[in-house]
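Something for you to look into today, if you have time. I want to see for myself how the chain folds. Leave the record below and I will have a look.
***
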Amino acid sequence: MIPPPFPAGSKMAEGSALQVHAVRFGPGQELFGCLQTFVEERRLRAPFIITCVGSVTKATLRLANATATNTNEVLHLSGCFEIVSLVGTLNRDAHVHISLSDLEGRTIGGHVLGDLEVFTTAEVVIGEAVDLQFSREMDQQTGFPELVVQTPSKMGKSA
């Protein structure tokens, strides 16, 4: 038997036209804050990271042991790191994950809390699903604010 395309608990995906933005950040800039400012200044409603290459000298990450009742392990990194992956949604309550590679090629990753200080460059391509709006609402099952995708017909009915 073929499983259904959306298992129990899944939320229906929506389609949208795509607008693409490219931006480069330089040495010393705080990447996470710069991305949020970029999104706010352009009033992007459903932004997400398509790709990113660059490097950082600092990062603050929450590791994967997060639960609603666990205060989480937070990792403060300092040194030279290549950005090997940066993914996520960039609405007001952004949800972004990063993978970083150190000088020996070892990789560490987690949920971005901030302090992503650019070392040489951060070249980011941001997509916007122009027919949608992203927001976050508390999910009783996970204990975290989770993504809510709204279409124009539903916008304004919940935040």
Remarks:
- The mean pLDDT is 88.
- The longest strand covers residues 107-129.
